[in-house]
Design a protein that fits this description.
It is built from 8 helices and 13 strands. By secondary structure, it is an alpha+beta fold. It has a single domain, classed as Oxidoreductase, molybdopterin-binding domain (Sulfite Oxidase, Chain A, domain 2, Alpha-Beta Complex), CATH 3.90.420. A hairpin with a 5-residue loop joins strand 2 and strand 3. The radius of gyration is 19 Å and the shape is globular. The protein binds ligand MTE.
């Protein structure tokens, strides 16, 4: 990211944990919100509309791979963001994200698949059982958070659209709409933001498409209405506000790799042994904590994903 130093975060930018909600309180609150919204319930949709608020999400089961570490507060997760489409400061996405209209929303599926289609968000999400996945997110800027996402395995969606044998990678693209995304009026990155995964990375049971967090639909600053979450990779791989998923034969270009190839590789696996050219990746600061922690290889998800990279030199393929 375009920052001077990994730890160059003013203390005033760090939101105190004002709004930490423990799990039981949260479940009670979510239940109450759900009951209050009963009149507005769309029975076929898991995304329950509540006027003037984030919608509570119904029917979420507990998913696998969750960490038992303390969740970051809702306040931290929604006010300390990277979403350059709204500006480069951590508070810009929460300040300016409100201008983005996420209804209606479509996602185009293109390329080497038997079932190319443009999905309305509801149709994309409806067939999938939604899970809560509490994952660590490790940003390339050497900070981290623990976030209770709600989503479903990307693999399940990929199977639905039936990739052909030519599909080796997936390219994801964020919405391009400068009228609602003020950061896109400046050429900080080559818009629209794009990211990519190898097909086997996309099929990992860890990789999810997220539609919510903390029991509610995503706020715009977190990538509403649908984003990727790839917890063993630096946060910038987890592309927000996706409008296109394209199955391709060759490794796709990605926004950060285009901008600064020597700093941001295609793989971008969390790796304490490969420094960023401008700072070390050996430690990280968990938002809300004072002391730094050691960064774990693959962000601690090595048991699930190390085999994907057997035989590769991860210092070269950074
Ligand atoms: N997706 C888009 N479209 N634009 C961005 O600027 N920033 C990335 C990633 N996805 C980004 C994006 C980075 S650098 C990080 S660390 C995560 O989003 C942050 O996600 P969060 O704000 O929900 O914690």
């Amino acid at each position: 990211m375009l920052i001077k130093h990994a730890d160059d975060i003013r203390s005033s930018e760090i939101t105190p944990e004002r709004a930490y909600v423990n799990r039981r309180q949260f479940m009670q609150a979510a239940g109450a919100a759900l009951a209050a919204a009963a009149g507005a319930l769309a029975p076929e949709s898991p995304l329950v509309t509540v006027a003037g608020a984030q919608a509570a999400i119904s029917g979420v089961r507990k998913g696998p791979f969750g960490t038992t570490e303390k969740w970051n507060s809702f306040d931290d997760i929604t006010h300390y963001n990277n979403f350059y489409e709204f500006g480069v400061d951590k508070t810009d996405p929460s300040r300016y994200g409100g201008s983005l209209k996420t209804k209606p929303w479509t996602v185009a599926v293109e390329g080497h698949v038997n079932r190319p289609a443009t999905y309305h968000l509801e149709d994309l999400v409806k067939p999938h059982a939604l899970e809560e996945r509490v994952y660590r997110l490790r940003c390339v800027e050497a900070w981290s958070m623990v976030i209770p996402w709600i989503g479903f395995p990307l693999a399940d969606f990929v199977k639905r659209v039936e990739p052909t044998s030519k599909a080796k990678y997936i390219e994801f693209t964020t919405l391009l709409r400068p009228s609602e995304m003020p950061g896109q009026r400046r050429s900080v990155l080559d818009w629209p933001y794009t990211e990519g995964l190898r097909l086997d990375e996309a099929m990992s049971p860890l990789t999810i498409l997220a539609v919510g967090l903390y029991g509610k639909t995503l706020m715009n600053q977190n990538g509403a209405p649908i984003r990727l979450v790839v917890p063993w990779k630096y946060g910038f791989k987890s592309i927000k506000s996706i409008v296109r998923i394209r199955f391709v034969e060759k490794q796709p270009a990605t926004a950060w790799n285009n901008a600064t190839p020597g700093e941001y590789g295609f793989y971008s696996n969390v790796n304490p042994d490969v420094d960023h050219p401008r700072w070390s990746q050996q430690t990280e600061r968990r938002i809300g904590e004072f002391f730094r922690r050691k960064t774990l290889m693959f962000n601690g998800y090595g048991d699930q994903v190390a085999s994907l990279y057997a035989g590769m030199d991860l210092k070269k393929s950074y």
